[in-house]
Write a structure and sequence with these properties.
three-stranded antiparallel β-sheet; 12 strands; Aspartate Aminotransferase, domain 1; 17 helices; single chain; five-stranded mixed β-sheet; Aspartate Aminotransferase, domain 2; 47% helix
């Protein structure tokens, strides 16, 4: 195709998640008793999309102009303030008292927040540091911005009780390598409730990682350091604002915040407020200098203008109004808690069923997913599909969408994995 540029020619293939969803849908349409563990949206036990009824009711009462009018390029001020609070929780005042300033830019979903970071915080041709198990579209966001990916292991090779679920040595070594060869270093850390594993770092691991990042920035004072926390699922975690607490603890303990270091949160209200199609999110950033935050506001606003113009307005308005009142915020929280309990019940049953059936599932704590590490993910997923259990094969393992699996079918997924493991062995 001569009308496609070389970088356009590279865009091939179908999204693996949606292709496996289609296989489930075809099986169900043909009358099979099929289990859907493919999608990344929360479904009720009857298979219908889970919707926070408080948010839905508020949206339906919004004035017509809030649906139709443009939002400001950087977002509605009330929504930007809400985004900072959603990222930091009750620790916001503590962080402000410790000298940090926060800014935010509204984006079309969490994906928009990731794009802002990819397009502004690392030089073209450089690598962004990821764990070696990550949400597949990360690679596409990076490629689209002329970036590469460097990785370190998801889990340590040996049991280290001081930093469980974190290979601190590999993370630090990777930072050193990038800082030695690049003008800027950025890492994306999807925590808590990691997609695709459901892994969440402990408080000790969070502190150790932050300290390592601060030390790297201090040693490499001429290299920009950006720690981006992908918080897409954080409001379904046991410690939704654990990172804000860890940052406050670090500053309170006297750890210096290097001038060349930035911490960002990529927020997605798709999951927390069940408004996937309204594409509402934000990039929140923290730095000790107000002038730096103001400069970031300008940069991100310009980037958005040159990419998607302005993020959709209606959810910005509605959620700002909803959370502005104690009753509205509590009503949303109560419904969110119901959905979080549904997820927790499925995860508990799944982990117990895997134990009973001898399935060596990865550590999984929060959020929408669980993970089965294996050498041949496609073969395992195909063996499960032969039993009409549909999961998603990714690099290094199979993702189990507990968010979509009815509670009554959770044990069936464990049974299918057990049979698949035996068949593939």
């Amino acid at each position: 195709m001569q009308y496609l540029a070389s970088h356009g020619q590279e865009k091939t293939g179908n999204d693996v998640i949606f292709s496996w969803l289609a296989r489930y849908q075809n099986a169900a349409a043909a009358g099979a008793s099929a289990v859907n563990g493919t999608v990344g949206a929360l479904l009720e036990d009857d298979g219908k999309l889970a919707i926070n009824t408080v948010v839905d009711a508020a949206l339906r009462e919004a004035p017509a102009t809030e649906f139709s009018a443009y939002a400001p390029l950087k977002g509605l001020p009330s929504f930007l303030d809400l985004s900072i609070t959603l990222a930091l929780g009750d620790h916001r005042q503590d962080l402000e008292a410790l000298g940090l300033h926060a800014g935010a830019t509204a984006t079309p979903g969490g994906s928009g927040a990731l794009y802002l970071a990819a397009s502004n915080f690392t030089e073209r041709g450089d690598a962004v540091l990821l764990r070696d198990r990550f949400w597949g579209p990360y690679a596409g966001f990076l490629r689209g911005c002329g970036l590469n990916a460097a990785t370190y292991p998801l889990l340590p090779s040996s049991d280290d009780s001081s930093t469980p679920n974190l290979d601190l040595a590999a993370f630090s070594d990777s930072l050193d390598e990038l800082a030695a060869t690049q003008k800027s270093v950025m890492t994306w850390l999807n925590d808590p409730a990691h997609n695709p594993t459901g892994l969440s770092l402990t408080a000790e691991s969070r502190f150790a990682l932050l300290n390592a990042f601060m030390e790297s920035a201090t040693r490499n004072e001429h290299v920009g350091h950006t720690l981006l926390l992908d918080a897409a699922y954080h409001l379904y975690a046991d410690e939704p604002h654990g990172w804000a607490e860890t940052i406050a603890e670090a500053l309170d303990a006297g750890l210096p915040w290097p001038e060349n270091m930035l911490v960002c949160f990529a927020l997605s209200l798709s999951k927390s407020h069940t408004i996937y199609g309204l594409r509402t999110g934000a990039l929140v950033y923290l730095h000790p200098e107000q002038s730096s935050v103001q400069r970031l506001n300008d940069v991100m606003g310009v980037t958005g203008r040159q990419t998607w113009s302005a993020a959709p307005r209606v959810a910005q308005h509605v959620l700002s109004e909803l959370h502005a009142t104690q009753d509205g915020g509590q009503a949303w929280s109560d419904e969110r808690d119901r959905l979080a309990t549904l997820l927790s019940k499925r995860r508990e049953r799944f982990l117990e069923a895997c134990k009973q059936h001898g399935v060596a599932i990865n550590p999984s704590h929060d959020g929408f997913f669980a993970w089965y590490e294996c050498d041949d993910p496609v073969a395992v997923a195909e063996a499960c599909a032969n039993q009409h259990v549909y999961l998603v094969p990714l690099n290094g393992g199979v993702r189990i969408g507990l968010c979509a699996v009815p509670t009554s079918d959770v044990e069936r997924v464990a049974q299918a994995l057990a049979a698949a493991t035996e068949a593939v062995a």
